[in-house]
Structure formats: C-alpha cells, structure tokens
Amino acid sequence: TVKSDAGATVRDVLDFLENHRRGDGDGDDDDDELLKQESSDETQSLDVLRSLRDKDVSSDGYTLPAFPWFVDQTIGGAVATATHGSSLRHGSLSSQLTAMTLVLANGTVVALDEENTEPHVFRAARTNLGRLGVVVDVTMRIVRNHPVRKTSFDLTPEAFVRKVEKASAKFAECEDIAMAIDSSEMTSDEQRTERRRQCATASPEMRRLDETQAFWFFPLGKVTEVSFSRLDDFEDDLSVLLGVESHLVHESGGYANAAWNTTGDESPPPDSQTTQDQRNNAIASATSRASGAPHASSLRGLERRGVVADQPRDAPRDVTENIKALGNDNLARLFAKQWERASVVNVASGVFPARKSYLTMSEQQYDQHDQFGYDQYETCVPMRLAGQCLATIARATRDENTGDVGADAFGFRSQGLIRFVNEESGYLAPTNGLASGTCMYVNIEDFVRYADDDDKDASPDKNKSLQNIVSILRSNTCRGRLHWGKAGWPSPGCFNGPNEFGKSWCHFQCVAFRMDPGDKFVPSDSVSDVFSSSGFDRETCCGFDGTYLSEKQGCECKQMNKGFDLISGDACPGETWN
C-alpha cells in the first residue's frame, strides 16, 4: 500500500510510485534479485523475458491497480467521488482505498481502515463526497508496475455497439440467474453482492471488456477501441512470451548488453537508458510477432526525443479565451480530427509498464482543453442496459434518411470516452449494487456552450444536440447515474437520493448524521440539495453507531419535498428507477 496526503494529485502519487524502488527503505531487498541465467541461449531468452516481467519493469516501481484519464485532481477528491479508470477487477479509486484519516466536525481526528472499522462506516468513507469530514490522508492498494500490452484499433460505432450488446446480454443472463438463486435461498447482502460481481467476469464477452476503453469520435463516425493485457497475471499472455524463440529477442538488438540484467547487479552500464529503450522495443517486438498485435516504441523514448513535450508544472489550467469557431457545427469534423490527432500518443499499441500503458490525459490534450471552457458529463449506465443504450446513441448520431453521420453527432468537438467498472461497496459510488451496479461509464464534453464571448450566461440548452444525448443517458433506456463532481446535476429540488441510490442513500445519511450531527459539511440549498434529508427521520431511523434501521416502522428510505425546481418552480424532468 501507499499512504498519501489527500491534497497530493493522482499524478503525484503515480509518479512517486513509478520512481519508487524495492530496497528504498522497505526492507525487501531479497525480492530484488533477478532470475539467474541458464547456460543455453534459449534459456537465456526465457530468462530475459521473465526478468523483464519480474524485475526489470519492477525497476520502474509500482502503480495503482487502475487509475483515471484525468490525473491532475487531488487523490483525496478522486477517492471521495469514485473517480475511475476502466477495470472490472480493481474498480474505482474508492475500491482501492484501504484506510484514511478524517477530521470530524467537532475536531476529532479518526483513523479508518477496511480491516478494523465497522463495514457500514467504511462503505460511507469510500465515496464520502467530503460530507463526513476533512480528509487528511488516504492509503491505497498498489501493484508492481509490470508490463501491459496495449492494443488499439478503429471500428465503426455499430461494430463496437454489437460487442457491448453481446456482453450486456450475457451479463443480464448471469444476473437474472444470480437473482433467482438469491430469491430461493437465505443469502446475506455480501453473498448477493459477490454473485452479481462474478457476473462481470463470468463470460468471455464480459471479460473482453475488462480494462477496455473506447474513444467515440461522433462527427467522424469512428470508435477507437483500446484493450489491455497484463503480462504478469494472464497465463495465456505469459505462455506466448515464454514460447517466443530466442532469435526474436537477439534480432531486435534488445539485449546486446543483457549480462548485467541477469547477475543481480544493481548498477547498470553507462548507456543503461539506451538499453532500457532496447529492452522495451525487444519485448514489444517479441510480443507483437507472437500475437500479431502492432507495437510502438517506448513512450519514454518518445519523451526523450522531444516527440512528447512536458508542460511546466505551473502551466495555467483556467479558461483563457473563448473561440467562436467551437460553436460552429459545420466545423465539428475539423475539431474532432484535431482531438483524434492529439490522442495518437495515448492509444499507440505496444508493451509498456502499466503506468505508461493505461490511458491518462496527454500534454496534447491539456494544451487543447486548458484554453477553453467546457462542461463534462458522465453517467454510469447499468451493464444490463449498456447495449441498448449505446445502440440508441448510435442511431441518434446518424441521419435517419441516409444513415450517414449526422443528427446529434455534430454537437461534439472532443471524443466521448467509454469505460467499464464492476459493482462496488461504497454507498454513494454510482456502481453501488442499489444504484447502477456493474456499469458502463460514458463521458462526454460540451465545448459549444461557452464558445461565444458575448453569451457568458449561455444555458446548457445552447448545445441541443449534446443535451439530447445527455437526455438519452438519463432516460429509462439507459438509467445512467451521474458521476459526482461533473456537470448535469439537477436543480435544487430535483435530485432524489433514494431514487438514484436506493437504500444505500439512507445508509450513507445515517453514517453522516453520526459523524456530523450538526450538518457542518452540508452545502447550502442555494448550491445544491443533494444531501437533503427532508422526509427521512434521522433521529429515529439511524442507530447510535450510524446504522440505518431499515426495518423500523416509519423508516422507509424516501425523501419529501422533491419533484419541483426550487428556483423556477417548474416540475422536475426525469425518471423514477428504484
């Protein structure tokens, strides 16, 4: 595990882990020894690959099991809002949390951890939204920075939709069976949760989506799908590596200076950085020849050659200008093409250490994003509905008469980002089993709303095409739960926690009431009423230890005074799902 101040950015944590070495005070030097070289050339090649897997890439340190696209947010805020990458095994950063330190409203400092803290309290802390107190530090699970094979390819939206439809159908079939078993047996909440979670990896169709991410360039009518294989824990990938003939490594020139890698000597030769590049290229070459997957040179090599430039750490991230051209739908394809070019470095196929392989926002994207104002929407669509949801969006971005790209596709400038995350235990995680459960996250951005400098108070409806897609994601077709901390939250009076999160909303309310009985960490209604407890008697329905007394008479999980916009007085749109 790694313990970090809550105010450090995710990037800070990732960089620290990547640069950390075994033996840097962790007392585990014996684990640093490389596999010993055998006598034959063939065995030497196998050892080269094994040592890359077990040691040489571990010289690149450690990393988080899964991490988000945007890594310049604080680690405390990212955990508090269930910020995520794409992983059906490791989940969001909230699921990777093992401990945290909080300062409560009364000034008490409390230490929470998943082993010793009451489970209901830690479930609330996982996705705490800043509601429970001031987060001082967090402790996260980590893994070795092992090699990961990244493979990207382009396909039509309809082809990608068919993949998701197949996975969605298999997941629904598995979930229906699990629910039928639950209704016929006396099972605990934990058992029911585990059965549902197993559905995320029960079929080949679902397993193919583990760690898969996809960029959907709506105006271009194209999806770039990126899949990942961890070479340290997939036996099929390892068998491919160990089956590679020795000449593949030697022909690539990757181990001309390999002797120091098989002696256990911690001191590399003077040209070790060149050798590191050669090793990366060697493993990429060997893997791609064995699997047929394309490959690229090490991203670090691109950085050193100036192809990828680092921005200064103090580079501004605020809106600096309005570009009216962004509001012109006739230029949607042009801007989409620019974002596609900027993402080439992200999606390049090859074998890299995990930290470099998984997608994070590159400096090219920063350069484009930090100049303009935009709203970012993200919804968590239940996996059983993911297929029909994407199919509906695909139809909405095609001209109904010609079938060409059209209709709502031209409301987009940047690409949509699609990821998959398994069910999680955090009460207010969108993937909680009483909310969306295992889900497909769809992230989209509106650059049109703020494009005109003369229209500073433009409403979201200025970009009607994008709002049509948001409406689909929030409709009964998709039932997407909104990601905390992003755009699209209903006006005060229109957010209904029990409708979105079921009983888990009241479980969270009870923990929050015991830790902050005076509601010191509740925003004013003028900001948001998402924490409103109107209609839920916390004094009666919450136990002394913060448990929700759901079976007690009069303690149904519901909220009152909802359904009307507190500002305009208009009836709230939306569906009641739970």
Written overview of the protein:
The structure is a single chain. This protein has 578 residues and is of the alpha+beta class. Helices cover 34% and strands 13% of the residues. The chain is built from 20 helices and 14 strands. The strands form 3 sheets. Strands 10-7-9-8-12-13-11-14 form an 8-stranded antiparallel beta sheet, sandwiched between helices. The protein has a 4-stranded antiparallel beta sheet with strand order 1-5-3-4.
Give a quick precis of the structure:
By secondary structure, the protein is an alpha+beta fold.
Mean pLDDT: 79
Q: Helix count?
A: 20
Helix content: 25-40%
Described by the principal axes of the CA atoms, the overall outline is globular
Residue fraction in strands: 5-15%
Oligomer: single chain
- Outline the biggest β-sheet: 8 strands, antiparallel
Strand order of the largest sheet: 10-7-9-8-12-13-11-14
Topology:
Blueprint: E1 2-5, H1 10-19, H2 41-56, E2 62-63, H3 75-80, E3 97-103, E4 109-113, H4 119-126, E5 134-140, E6 143-144, E7 147-155, H5 157-184, H6 189-198, H7 204-207, E8 213-217, E9 222-230, H8 235-242, H9 246-251, H10 272-291, H11 299-304, H12 332-342, H13 344-347, E10 350-353, H14 354-357, H15 363-369, E11 375-382, H16 383-396, E12 416-421, E13 439-446, H17 464-474, E14 481-482, H18 497-501, H19 503-515, H20 538-541
Antiparallel strand pairs: 1-5, 2-6, 3-4, 3-5, 7-9, 7-10, 8-9, 8-12, 11-13, 11-14, 12-13
